[in-house]
Amino acid sequence: MKLHQEKTTTTRAVQARRVPSGEAVEIPAGTLVTITQALGSSFSVVAGGQLVRIDGRDADAIGREVPPPPPTLPADASPDEVRELVWETLKTCYDPEIPIDIVELGLVYSCEVEPMEDGRFKVAIDMTLTAPGCGMGEVLANEVADKVLALPPVGHVDVRLVFDPPWDRYRLSEMARLALGM
Fold first, then answer.
1. Under a CB-based contact definition with an 8 Å cutoff, are residues 86 and 152 in contact?
2. Which CATH number applies to 6-62?
3. Which of 33, 89, 92, 125 has the fewest CB atoms within 10 Å of its CB?
4. pTM of the model
5. pLDDT, tens digit, for every residue of 114-160?
6. CA gap 55, 149 in Å, rounded
């Protein structure tokens, strides 16, 4: 698989996370970076020889557009409609090292949607990582929680990182296998 890479210079200082450690770093203004992945609502870039991830809200720092807000559902949406929207939203979350969304990678094990007393919905998601020691686990889980909680009918989100059963390449979708040349 050949990735399109684009070089650009940061227009301002920007916060990022090292991949795969998840350590917070600041990339100074005027730094030459190579964008290696611009999918979903985050960007993977090489800065100073290190792979880092920049949140979509900081897209302007690398000359990109901030991703659009999530779609909405009517106030009387059913649990099935909310579940479908949540799954579509999960497809906008990408592994920072592999240009494939977390659903196609088989990282999402379950998504439960339940009505709450106030008319909104509680969403519980079990997901895993390609490697249990990956420092990006909390970053990915937070991205999932933030995106799902931003959906208007959602009032509460619980994202659990689970490692049983462990992830393996057989959880990849057919599309993911084709994209990775497997």
1. no
2. 2.30.30.40
3. 92
4. 0.76
5. 999 999 999 999 999 988 888 778 889 988 998 999 898 899 999 99
6. 16
